[in-house]
């Protein structure tokens, strides 16, 4: 068993494009069928004239079920369209590609806005979730954003995610970003979703326990299709995206430019210590590579301060050697795999 685990870990570390699990093809077939039905429904809706009120009180004309927030943002300025992470329509977070359904007010939020960060990190969790499925072939559970970053839980049949596997996850995440995969939204009947996710007992539990309406939403990016209320960024990233270790002059945008695994741990399904044991992978992402670099420096600074408070004699160590010492400790701490109960999990469909 140990030998098999080591062999799998080596395969994960070396794999550039692991074969996809079988359930991905099943899910994709159902998605395509349901997408045709939903597109037919949208096409049948009347394209009535509507008025869209901007944040400054001005109004623009549009058409119901046709005009989208991204269209309005582009008409205002290219810079606004590129920097916007998500829109708010009538006070509700709304996908930039999702058409207005009637008269509405609209706001545009970037990464500097709290709601913009929430959506940005939620979408980043889906990017990492896609990579996790493709690498481990496990069953995804919850994958919410946090106050800083995000995580995804996965049932892996008892196999532990190892720190030496983080680079393979990072590498695949970057590949997903470079593909600029669109986030697509579908509203689907509950019974159809039970068929789509029949392979995943955890998604079936969510559907049976938490979905009390005839329909709910799913989102797709690349090979990943997941239960989710959304909303999400327009796509997984941009073609000039770079791995977080590299330098880039890329400007601020509403898409993911830099992403990295920060740690992993054991967790329990919905925080219940008597339920299934899962593997949780945490991550962080930013709209610029520089922001990732700044964040890492800040983490080292916090780590350094904590050690100096506990062991004041360290302040006498020469600056360069002290910096290297703390950076080394921080890197080691980053990869410690500490089992923990679920401190935070989504009570909604934000998976």
From TrEMBL:
Span of domain TGS: 46-110
EC number(s) from the headed UniProt entry: 6.1.1.3
Catalysed reaction equations from the record: tRNA(Thr) + L-threonine + ATP = L-threonyl-tRNA(Thr) + AMP + diphosphate + H(+)
Record GO cellular component, one term: mitochondrion
Molecular function GO terms recorded: ATP binding; threonine-tRNA ligase activity
Database matches in SUPFAM superfamilies: TGS-like, ThrRS/AlaRS common domain
One Pfam family matching this protein: tRNA_SAD
Keywords carried by this UniProt record: Aminoacyl-tRNA synthetase, ATP-binding, Ligase, Nucleotide-binding, Protein biosynthesis
Domain of life: Eukaryota
InterPro entries: Beta-grasp_dom_sf, TGS, TGS-like, Thr/Ala-tRNA-synth_IIc_edit, tRNA_SAD
PANTHER family xref list: THREONINE--TRNA LIGASE (PTHR11451:SF46), THREONINE-TRNA LIGASE (PTHR11451)
Protein name: threonine--tRNA ligase
